[in-house]
Amino acid sequence: MASVALMIMAVAFGAPWITVVALKNIAAEVGGERSIPSLAGALVWLGSGVGGILMGRVAERVGVRWTVIGGASMIAAGLALSTFGPSLPLFVGHGLFIGLLGLGGINAPFYVYVSRWFDRRRGSALALISSGSFLAGAIWPSIFERAIAYAGWRQTMLYYALVELLLIVPAAAIVLGRPPDSAHRVTLAGATQSSDTVLGWPPNLVFVLQAGAIFTCCVPMSMPQAHLVAFCSDLGISPVHGAAMLSVLLGSAFLSRQVWGALSDRLGGLYTMLAGSACQTAGLAAFLLTQNEFGLFTVSAAFGFGFSGLVPANILASRELFPVGEAYWRIPTLLLCSGTGMATGSWLGGILYDYFGFYAPAFAAGVAVSMINFTIISALAFRRSQTVVAV
């Protein structure tokens, strides 16, 4: 089940990468404003987050199979609509169809669905399926770059719409059945003191801090992902090598996420988040200090390693701290905050570039937000350590 979910996620999350790779091509049609295609990519993440909350409830009633089939159909429709060009068709196609109705029916429901198939290895399973977007980024950008150079970004979107339908719909129809019931509550030692507290605090206070942590980790996470190909082009690095660099970044994230998943099974979600936040901050800061091609390949791989464990560790922490019966709304809400953070970072990078004319201010802003993220997670991790000691 986890492997099929990973494959479906890797195909579904391929769609937004067309806009990332074609960012400069699309911007050229609107006076060179990179904030417009950046906003389209941002709307995908925002729509996915909002749609996850809605579709999480639908999946509880009708099953994941049908939300995934519907999601794949909506992604294909969104790609077709986006070919009518910037700005409005691109925004509606990406935000409403690809994001809210498409990825919203696939991403968040899969986190809840797959987590119900595992107990002891839940962290590794969540890390595996959440790597779908990274696997998509490792596989598709280089393919899209060649396709865009040959046929244009519009034709590439139409081709990929067909790929979405041919691969996802049969897989979902054949494989995705009902998960086993798991109505028990799984918690970390000392995580809860009573049914009214989590880590000794009101449950919703802990959840708000979790939401703040996942938002502030995703703002800096998305900046290099959304702008790396364009950033390389500004430095005189060819689009082919820029797309390859993006694939290295996301390939590193995919492989290392399995390491972070195994680590989270041993340490728990909160401590894994803390280590990942420190690595992400250091990796993003390195983009400010590197301009040559070899150095950027190295930094991209290091950055991919650093941030890859943050989101699944946060989801795991939620499953450790709160009852499984609340997962259907807590996990999609966290993913909404994640998607909002990804959208904010992607769009903010485009706005800051349009204002300053180079990417250093965007990366510096990302480092500042990443430091805020480290502070929030530190507070939660410290509280957990104090609670365990008290027990």
What does this structure look like?
Residues 182-194 have low confidence and may be disordered. The longest helix has 32 residues, at 203-234. Helix 4 (35-62) packs antiparallel against helix 5. The two termini are 37 Å apart. With 391 residues, this protein is an all-alpha fold. Helix content is 80%, strand content 0%. The protein has one domain: Up-down Bundle (Growth Hormone, Chain: A), CATH 1.20.1250.20. The chain contains 17 helices and no strands.
Provide a concise account of the structure shown.
The protein has 391 residues and is mainly α.
User: Which architecture name does CATH use?
Assistant: Up-down Bundle
What is the C-level CATH assignment?
Answer: Mainly Alpha
Number of helical stretches of at least 4 residues: 17
Question: How many structurally independent domains?
Answer: 1
Low-confidence stretches: 182-194
Amount of helix: over 70%
Q: What overall geometry do the principal axes of the alpha carbons give?
A: globular
Alpha-carbon Rg, integer = 20 Å
Total beta-strand segments: 0
Report on the biggest sheet: none
Q: Give the structural class.
A: mainly alpha
CATH topology: Growth Hormone, Chain: A
Report the order of strands and helices: HHHHHHHHHHHHHHHHH
What is the CATH homology-level superfamily? MFS general substrate transporter like domains
**End-to-end CA span:** 37 Å
Overall mean pLDDT score?
Answer: 88
Q: Per DSSP, what share of the residues sits in E-state strands of 2 or more residues? A: under 5%
